[in-house]
Amino acid sequence: MANAFDFELVANDQVTATIHRIDEAVKKLVPQLDKTRDGLQLAE
């Protein structure tokens, strides 16, 4: 039973790290998406 708990703990840490990386990637995309949106509005 202890092994299952240890495995779940590691899996949760990995998920947390992955979510953090995704969050950072999205934050980097926001300025580019804002520029794209502004460009599309100018084209209307």
Distance between the termini: 62 Å
Which regions have little confidence, pLDDT < 50, spanning 5+ residues? Answer: none
Element pattern in H and E: H
Task: Please tell me the overall pLDDT.
Answer: 82
**How many DSSP helices?**
1
Gross morphology is rod-shaped
Can you put this structure into words, describing what you see?
- There is one protein chain.
- The termini are far apart.
- The mean pLDDT is 82.
- The chain is built from 1 helix and no strands.
- The radius of gyration is 19 Å and the shape is rod-shaped.
- It has 44 residues and is mainly alpha-helical.
- It has one helix at residues 2-43.
Quick synopsis:
The protein is mainly alpha-helical.
Looking at this protein, list some descriptive labels.
44 residues; mainly alpha
Indicate the topology:
Blueprint: H1 2-43
